[in-house]
Amino acid sequence: MKWKLLLLITCFAFSLSAQQTAEVAFSKSYAFEYNTDYTKAINVLQELNTDNYQINLRLGWLYYLNKDYIKSEMHYKKAIALEPSSLEARFGIVLPQSSLGNWNNVLATYLEILKLDPNNTIANYRTASIYYNRKDYVNAQTYVSRVIKLYPFDYDSNLLIAKIYQAAGKNTEAKKHFIKALEYNPQSEEATQALKKL
Fold it and tell me: Residue range 129-139: average pLDDT?
């Protein structure tokens, strides 16, 4: 019976020590990041067990800051594998993907986010922006309309849908949304100039 108690105490002490070690490592990592010493911020975390969501998420961020986009993407992928429903890891992975110019992967990631959270306004807006830049106005309108439904007075979304309508030759609808954008931000040069062209 005593050996079971001794084993339990040893396991608890080891677990507490590992937790304190992780907290110290994270604390040091944040301090190194604050001083823009990203290599040291990375190294202090790699001394820990890297089969951990938080560590991979943080390493993804630090490698991104260090402009090592391949390793950044790799760690974000590990984080997603460890927590498959994580939105934060997916929002993280789009950083190295976009820096590498992998816009198909960025779009696929935003669509994954929207499967998990269909009303996510950031993912809907960014998906719409990608489709708009690809001149796919039908899909662009679909995704930005979801944002406008939830935030009818949002400046960026009104401006984007106005540009979509303008590109599609729907000037009456475009004008309505350019005016909303200007009501939100009367100093908007972009909305002012676009409205003059209608």
Answer: 97
